Fold diacylglycerol O-acyltransferase.
Amino acid sequence: MVFEAPLDPKKQYVFGSHPHGVISYVSQIIAGATGLGIEAHYPGLVVRGVTLPAAFIVPFFRDYILAMGCLSCDCNSIRRILSDRHHRLHQSLLVVVGGAEESMLAHDDTADLVLLKRRGFVREAIRAGCDLVPVYNFNENSIYRLAPNQPGTLVHRFESTLKSLFGFTILIFHGRNIFFTPYRAKLVSVVGKPIPVQQNCDPSEAEIQHYHNLYVNELTRLYRKNRPKYAPGCADIRFIA
């Protein structure tokens, strides 16, 4: 992990993690692994990952994500965690912003993100007065290979249908062997500079858009600054939606 600016363990943050990748491998590590993730670098900073509510009804997988400290991404869960009234500890959130739609774009050496229409995490950060922090996980898209799923293909129709029905999808992908061993790649997670946010319990659309624009600009700067060092063969960042 690389931090562009120090974090204050006594503060709360809303981290946006990009890209989603096939299985959000790096995001699971930096939010769910106490010895490797953000908490290891800043003791006292508690980071909770969020995922779809449907994940909590899947047998065994539910226990896995609970063991990592994940919670549902619905607004009630988020607001409860970010509220000091319910917890003694200041807890921060890590949101894989692009979701299932972005996972379908996780081809090797690409940086195609679904972000421009994702504004809910910004709204919740304003309501709680938490600084926004962009995180880019270089080479996340290189550890697995997606089957060709361009629009119009059978694979794309299959993945899109599942996403529209359930909110998540089942990707067709492969690793180095039949055990889905990941391909070798140097994984580097770069944590950007916190974007100060002024608390407002009822933010206007203009205010949400203002902080969203700051976030997009900071993420773009972070990616273009660090790409030559950590992923020189990767394409430039693109915002698909």
About this structure: The chain has a mean pLDDT of 92. The chain has eight helices and eleven strands.
